[in-house]
Each structure stands twice: as C-alpha cells, then as structure tokens.
Amino acid sequence: MSEVLAGTRRGPRSVLLFAGPAIIASVAYMDPGNYATNIQAGAGYGYGLLWVVLLANLIAMLFQSLSARVGIVTGSNLAELCRDHFPRPIVLVMWVVSEIAAMATDLAEFLGGAIGLALLFHMPLMAGMVVTAIVTYAILLFEARGFRPMELIIAALVSVIGLCYLIEVFIAPIAWGDAAWGMISPSLPDSTALTIAVGIIGATVMPHAIYLHSGLTQNRAVLRNDSDRRKVVRFSNIEVILALAAAGLVNMAMVMMAASAFHNGHSEVAEIETAYHMLTPLLGGAAAGVFLVSLIASGVSSSVVGTMAGQLIMQGFINLRLPVWFRRLFTMIPAFVIVALGVNATNALVLSQVVLSIALPVPMVALIIFSGRKDIMGQFCTGRVVRALAILGATIVLTLNMVLLTQIFGVPIPGLPAG
After folding, report:
1. Class for domain 2-408, per CATH?
2. 171, 170, 199, 145: which is closest to 35 by C-alpha?
3. Residue 262 has what DSSP assignment?
4. I need a labelling partner for 137 at 20 to 30 A (CA). Which of 102, 262, 327, 355 fits?
5. What is the per-residue pLDDT across 212-227, written as a single tens digit (0 to 9) for each?
6. What is the DSSP annotation of 110-162?
C-alpha cells in the first residue's frame, strides 16, 4: 500500500490492495431481509417497485462513501466520533437504538441462513439455526488473522450470491421492458406497497453497514499527509460504486425473478419457504436449488458482518469490547425466541427491515453532521452539492418512516388506499 501511495506502483492492480471494506459492507445489501422484501415486492407488484430498489441503492452509495471517507480522514469510526463529540445522554440513546437495529439485523440474517439450510437439507428450522451459528462463529475466528483473510472469505460468499442470481435471471423469463419502466416510474399503489417500500429501504440502506464501513477503512494504511488521504478516498469511492452497483443488480434480479415467477397467478406469494416450493413447478428444480444456495451464502456472510458491526458499535459508543462468542450469543437470542414462539419467519424478516429503516436516521444524521464539519474533516469536508444530496436522502427516509408510523397507528393517508 505504501508503494501505491508513494506513486512508485501504479495500474489497476494497485487499486485491489485497497479493496475490501466496501465488499464487506455490500453484504448488508444482499442479506436475507432483502430476499423477504424483494419477494413480496415482485410477487405483489411485479416490476412496479424496482424504482425503490434503485433509489435505495443510490442513497446507500452516497452514505457508504461518506462513512468510508470519515474513517479514512479522521482515523476514527462513526460510533467513536459520536462518543467524542455528542453529550453523554445522546450517546447512550444512540447506542441503545443502534443495538436494537443490530438485533433486528441479526434476526434477518440468522433466520435467512437457517431457513435456507432447513429447506435444502430437510432439517428442522431450529437445527438450521444451530448450524448457522456454528458456521458463523467459525468464520469469525479468522478475524484474528487480520483483515485480508476475512475479506477474501466474504468476497467468496458475495461471489456465490451474485453468480446464483445471474443464473436465476437466465432461467426466469424477464419482461425487460416492464423492468426498465419500473425503475424510472415511481408509484405506491396502496399502503402495503408503502410498507414493502420502507422495508426495501431498511434492507438496503443498513444502519450497521454505515457504522461498520467507517471502522473498516480506519488504520488500514499509514497515511502520512492529505495527499495520501486523497488517494485512499478516491480508491474507496471507486470500490463503493462497484461493490454497491453489484449489490443493487442482485437486488433488482431478486425482484425481477419474483415478478416473473409469481406476479401473474401467484401474487399472494410472500414467504421465502413458499417461494422456494413454488419455484420448482414454475421454473424447475435448478432455479429452486440455486435460490436456496444463494440464501444460505447470504445468511452466513451477513451474519458474520452483522456480528462485526455489533462489536464495533458497542466498542465505539461505550468503549466496551465483548468476546466474539458472547456478542454472537447476545444478538442471536431474539431469533431463537421468535422461532420458539412459532412466529412466521418471513413476516419477522420483513418487520425487522422496517425496524432497521426506522433506526436508520440515527447514523445518517450523525454522518451528515460529522462529514460536514471542517474542524473534523478539514479539506475533506463535504461540499454543498454532496451535503444537499445527503440531506435529501435522509429526508426521503425520514418522510417514508413518518408516513409508515402514521399508517401503523391507524391514521389514513390521503390518496393511498389500503393494501
């Protein structure tokens, strides 16, 4: 890395030395919560909610790039900056909200991997959860060997997810014209579409990913001056665009597959298990098998990343570091409780994404504040255009959340019929 920063090593391969943080963060944008919301979006509304996926992905690119920039420039992660610059009571509230978001995240990731294993190997869901927990913990042990082995493992799992959905797109008969129109024609036909839209945003722009990315980029290389920081920020921006563009394409492929397979004649499909069983007669056993393989890879990889983020959040906000096994146990307890109570797994996944979307403004607002402060960021302080776009993105999320909350409390929304 020092040779690249000094200018003695150039070329496309030099950028790969700095790759990794955005790839790990991108896992959060392909987790099992995305599967649940995307299946519901495609089955219920065809290609009509693809614009939400595109919008969420663009917002994610902006905020992940800002998070990486903060970590590179300051050498501190977002949670640490909150602890150092906000009053103690606000920090504690932010930590509690962030921990709730981490639990909701782990619920989605853990359940997704367990559902995939249970369906593929015909085992009880509880057994699938135990296997997922063991595999996740085994992968987390590689973190002690440095950041590169973990990045390579996560990159391999991300590649599996991407390859699976590339196969799915070729198997499913996609109406490409309708899909293109769905990306550029915003509409929310009813209140259920609004709930799914908020879920998509909650599953795409993830609170823990925003915190984690700032931690993954800090202290990866010795940055001697602002010239070094500028180069690393540029490399980081390239990686964010490429990694999240790939994640966005996977999400769109999920919606398009569900729209192609279920919307005409099976629009009631809203659960991962039902989607799997319906795929075999509609698209063949290969499509169903590939779907489960991608779900397992998603569940395992995102569960690993979620645990890493949870540790960073706790250490950053309250300066407390827990053993990996305890942190893993702490965040997966809600998932075991939900399964033990017999709660519908897919409904739990979708609701977890709504919780994430409601928690999302906390890191978004903090990131806008810190990235725009010249006393913290110096010459890397965000300009007017970037700051305006960030405020617009946060406003969209806040507005959708407020509309959803009014809907939950029974307040009718003019012009939006019930789903």
Report:
1. mainly alpha
2. 199
3. I
4. 355
5. 888 888 766 667 778 8
6. HHHHHHHHHHHHT--HHHHHHHHHHHHHHHHGGGGG-HHHHHHHHHHHHHHHH
